[in-house]
C-alpha cells in the first residue's frame, strides 16, 4: 500500500471512530438524584455506589488527591524509564502535576460562575506539568491550554526538534464532532453564558429520548443537558460534566497526545501538514469503550466527578 493510501486510510478510520464514539448511546453520562422534569416525567436516579466503608468526605478527598498525584507520577515515571531518563525526578514532577490537576477539578466543583473555566485551565496546567516531566522538561517548559474546541500550545518544540513556537493553535477533532452532533439534536441550544462559565461548549434544552433518561451528557469536551431542569439541578449537572471535561483534557494531554504524535510520525513520516493543526482526541473512544464494560456506579471517573460535585 502506498504512503498516500495509508494516510487516507488512517485519517478516515480515526474520523469514523470519533463519530461513532460520540454518537453511540453509550456515550451518555448521567447524574442523580434530580427529581422530576417540569413536564412531570419522572427522572430515574442514576445508579450510585454504595457507601459501606465509613469514610468521611475529607478522607475521600484525601484519597482522591493521592490517586491523582500517583497517576501523574506513574505516567511521567514510566515515560522517563522508557526513554532512559531519571525516573525519580520525573515521578516527583508528575505527582506535582497530578496534584495541580486535582486542585483544578476542586475549583470546578465549587459550582460558582466562571469557576469551570478557571478550574479547567488550572487542571490543564497540571496535565502539562505531567507531560513535561515525561518528556524530560522543566515543569512549566510548555503548556497546553484548552478553550472550547481549540487548544493553545505555548512554547512547544517544533516537530523537527529545532526551535519553539510561542503559541500554536490546534483544533480538537473530538470536540468539533461533538458540537456538530449536538447542533443536530432536537431542541438543542448553545447556552453562551454557561459556555463562557464552563470554558467548554454547553448545550441545553435537549429532548429526553426513549429508554433510560440521561439528564446530562459529556462527549469529547462538550456538555449537554435535557430540558426542564430546575436551577439547582442545572448547575449541579453542569458542574459534574465540566469535571468530566477536565478529565478528558488530562487524558488527552498525558496519554493521547504522545500516542497521536507517534501515530502521525509513523504514518506520515513527520508531523507536518494536518498533524500540526489537529488533535484527534482518541482518548474519548477509549473512555467510551471502557464504559461499556464497567458499571456506571463503579467507573472511577464517575466516582471522582460525583465526589467533587458534592463538596464541600
Spell out the blueprint of helices and strands:
Blueprint: H1 3-23, H2 57-83, H3 87-109, H4 115-134, E1 143-147, E2 150-157, E3 164-172, H5 173-183, E4 189-190, H6 192-198, E5 202-206, E6 216-219, E7 222-226, H7 231-268, E8 278-279, H8 283-291, H9 300-309
Question: What does this entry show, briefly?
Answer:
This protein has 312 residues and is an alpha/beta fold.
Structure description:
The protein has one domain (3-48, 56-309). Helix 1 (3-23) crosses helix 8 (283-291), helix 3 runs antiparallel to helix 7 (231-268) and helix 7 packs antiparallel against helix 9 (300-309). Residues 1-50 have low confidence and may be disordered. With 312 residues, the chain is α/β, with parallel strands linked by helices. The chain is built from 9 helices and 8 strands.
Overall mean pLDDT: 80
Shape field: globular
What percent of residues adopt helix (DSSP H or I)? 40-55%
- Straight-line N-to-C gap: 57 Å
Secondary structure category: alpha/beta
> Order of strands in the sheet with the most strands?
1-2-3-8
Number of helices: 9
Percent strand equals 5-15%
Number of domains: 1
- Major beta-sheet overview: 4 strands, mixed
Number of beta-strand segments:
8
* Contiguous uncertain segments of 5+ residues: 1-50
CA-atom Rg in angstroms: 20 Å
In N-to-C order, the SSE pattern is HHHHEEEHEHEEEHEHH
Amino acid at each position: 500500500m502506498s504512503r498516500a493510501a495509508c494516510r487516507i486510510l488512517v485519517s478516515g478510520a480515526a474520523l469514523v471512530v470519533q463519530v461513532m464514539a460520540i454518537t453511540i448511546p453509550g456515550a451518555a453520562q448521567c447524574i442523580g438524584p434530580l427529581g422530576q422534569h417540569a413536564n412531570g416525567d419522572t427522572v430515574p436516579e442514576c445508579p450510585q455506589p454504595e457507601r459501606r466503608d465509613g469514610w468521611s468526605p475529607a478522607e475521600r478527598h484525601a484519597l482522591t488527591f493521592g490517586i491523582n498525584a500517583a497517576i501523574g507520577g506513574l505516567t511521567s515515571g514510566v515515560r522517563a524509564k522508557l526513554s532512559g531518563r531519571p525516573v525519580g525526578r520525573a515521578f516527583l514532577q508528575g505527582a506535582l502535576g497530578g496534584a495541580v490537576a486535582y486542585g483544578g477539578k476542586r475549583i470546578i466543583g465549587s459550582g460558582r460562575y466562571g469557576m469551570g473555566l478557571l478550574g479547567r485551565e488550572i487542571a490543564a496546567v497540571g496535565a502539562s506539568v505531567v507531560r513535561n516531566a515525561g518528556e524530560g522538561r522543566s515543569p512549566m517548559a510548555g503548556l497546553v491550554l484548552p478553550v472550547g474546541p481549540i487548544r493553545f500550545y505555548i512554547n512547544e518544540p517544533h516537530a523537527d526538534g529545532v526551535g519553539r513556537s510561542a503559541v500554536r493553535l490546534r483544533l480538537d477533532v473530538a470536540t468539533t464532532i461533538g458540537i456538530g452532533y449536538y447542533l443536530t439534536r432536537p431542541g438543542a441550544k448553545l447556552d453562551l453564558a454557561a459556555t463562557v462559565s464552563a470554558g467548554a461548549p454547553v448545550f441545553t434544552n435537549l429532548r429526553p429520548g426513549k429508554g433510560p433518561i440521561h439528564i446530562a451528557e459529556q462527549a469529547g469536551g462538550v456538555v449537554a443537558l435535557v430540558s426542564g431542569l430546575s436551577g439547582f439541578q442545572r448547575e449541579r449537572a453542569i458542574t459534574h460534566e465540566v469535571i468530566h471535561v477536565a478529565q478528558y483534557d488530562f487524558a488527552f494531554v498525558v496519554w493521547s497526545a504522545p500516542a497521536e504524535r507517534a501515530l502521525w510520525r509513523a504514518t506520515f513520516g513527520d508531523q507536518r501538514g494536518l498533524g500540526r493543526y489537529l488533535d484527534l482526541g482518541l482518548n474519548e473512544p477509549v473512555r467510551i469503550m471502557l464504559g461499556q464494560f464497567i458499571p456506571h456506579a463503579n467507573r472511577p471517573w464517575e466516582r471522582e466527578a460525583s465526589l467533587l460535585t458534592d463538596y464541600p
